[in-house]
Design goal:
This protein is α/β, with parallel strands linked by helices. Among the domains are: 3-46, no CATH class; 103-348, Spore Coat Polysaccharide Biosynthesis Protein SpsA, Chain A, CATH 3.90.550. The protein is 49% helix and 19% strand. It contains 14 helices and 15 strands. Helix 2 crosses helix 3 and helix 12 (357-369) packs antiparallel against helix 13 (373-397). The longest helix is centred in the first third of the chain and has 50 residues, at 48-97. The protein starts with 6 loop residues before the first strand and ends with a strand. The relative contact order is 0.12.
């Protein structure tokens, strides 16, 4: 008998069974499974299948342990990187706030609209309250009867001193699968100024928003700047909407700040952008951008590839999250995950190792199955603290007054984010505004069914 071929493992059993296979003799003694290499084959007794289950369980638990350990290590490293990136962002933000805001070109503010939602009137009003010397507000919807356009007109009546125009563009042409870009093309055709600020309808800003955003274009070599945002759910919002909001604040911003720290900004965030008229033409024009769901990413990525400066602004805006049931919120977030997967497939694949709670739960299951419940529970608690540190550092540096609430629920959002990441590999079809589209490689969108 070769002593070097002996091995054992604990599987939590209390019975004693044994059998021989052509190459191994295996038996269980007091909860420990032993196997020993043999020289001869013998018949397997009737109870051998029971021991095989224990042996398979041991292998599966080993795999579970190493997956949980790997994910816990990578997510902890990522958490540390996020905290460093947050400190870097905060210091840069403080430094830029001390610099004079003396770059004041005339601006055209482009705002595509489609329908309305709770809180939108206040969102629009914050743009009429901007403290900036020379700007025009341009709104565009598909039809004159659009509720969002009507609401913008209503708000504009309260601010007659603001130069605002309200336009329609009709239904998007077949080649435009991105209706927002179709509206931007119309706004671009009538804008009086060559320096643009674009923003979505769910954006809410402070009075110095235009002033702060345009400072990023002071350098003539910079063609675009976008900024991170605080996802904000309304009073009495459902848990689903609160999780969506904190995901936009923490999960999105974490990835953006780390990417900016490692390789600079090679993308744009379309909630709001400061850019130049020529930047759109340099990447192929609106006809080209209209083929993509994530037109903002494509715009920033192509500008960066051409050597044009793309910056992450330190100004922070609010992105208002509409209250909606869980299934609708999940579907909307899944659509963005699918877009990210198609736009940058390798980066999206690697992001699966940045989540922490799923690996903490795996550690807990491993502990419970191996008789180490205390170790498993401690493992999960460590991962929860990991996410609290990540969320707290991001929300504090972004100036969120309710940072502690977002921090408290973020571990739950981390698990939801992982579920969305898994779901993003489920197919290429997505539902948007009453139609079904297909997301193709690179983020291109095919015609609806």
């Amino acid at each position: 008998m070769d002593a070097g071929s002996f091995a054992s493992c604990s599987v939590g059993a209390s019975i004693r069974i044994g059998f021989e296979l052509p190459s191994f003799h295996i038996w269980n003694d007091g909860g420990t499974l032993h196997w020993m290499k043999t020289q001869t084959a013998s018949k397997v007794p009737p109870r051998s299948g029971f021991a095989s289950i224990y042996f398979l369980m041991h292998i599966l638990l080993r795999i579970l342990f190493f997956v949980a350990l790997t994910g816990s290590v990578t997510s902890s490293i990522y958490c540390g990187m996020v905290m460093v990136a947050a400190i870097r962002f905060g210091l840069r933000r403080r430094r830029e706030l001390r610099q004079p805001a003396d770059f004041l070109p005339p601006l055209s503010v482009l705002k595509p609209l489609h329908g309305t939602e709770p809180g939108m009137e206040r969102n629009l009003e914050t743009f009429f309250q901007q403290q900036y010397p020379d700007f025009e507000l341009l709104f565009c919807a598909r039809q004159e009867t659009d509720e969002g356009l009507r609401l913008a007109r209503k708000v504009g009546e309260r601010y007659p001193a603001v130069n605002a125009r309200f336009l329609t563009c009709g239904e998007p042409m077949p080649k435009f699968h991105n209706a927002k870009v179709y509206s931007l093309a119309k706004l671009d055709s009538v804008a009086k100024n060559d320096t643009y600020i674009t923003s979505d309808a769910d954006v809410r800003v402070q009075p110095d928003y235009l002033l702060r955003m345009v400072q990023n274009l002071k350098d003539p070599h910079v063609g675009l700047a976008s900024c991170v945002y605080l996802g904000t759910a309304g009073e009495g919002a459902t848990l689903a909407s609160q999780l969506d909001a904190v995901g936009k604040s923490v999960e999105m911003t974490s990835g953006v700040l780390v990417a900016d720290m490692i390789e600079g900004t090679k993308f744009a965030l379309g909630a709001t952008m400061a850019t130049r008229r020529k930047s759109f033409q340099e990447v192929g024009g609106f006809d080209e951008l209209g083929q993509f769901y994530a037109d903002d990413f494509v715009l920033g990525n192509r500008l960066a590839a051409q050597g044009t400066g793309v910056l992450l602004a330190t100004h922070v805006i609010r992105l208002m999250v509409q209250d909606s049931p869980f299934w609708l919120s999940f579907r909307n977030q899944l659509r963005w995950m699918q877009s990210t997967r198609r736009s940058r497939p390798w980066g999206h694949l690697g992001s699966g190792l940045t989540f922490a709670i799923p690996f903490g739960l795996m550690g807990l299951v491993w502990g419970l199955c191996t008789g180490r419940a205390a170790v498993g529970l401690f493992w999960l608690v460590v991962m929860i603290v990991n996410r609290w540190l990540q969320a707290g550092s991001i929300l504090l540096v972004m100036g969120d007054p309710g940072w502690w609430r977002g921090t408290l629920i973020y571990p739950l959002r981390d698990f939801l984010g992982w579920a969305l990441w898994v779901g993003s590999y489920g197919g290429e079809s997505f539902y948007y505004r009453g139609k079904v589209y297909k997301m193709k490689q690179g983020g291109r969108v095919e015609s609806p069914e």
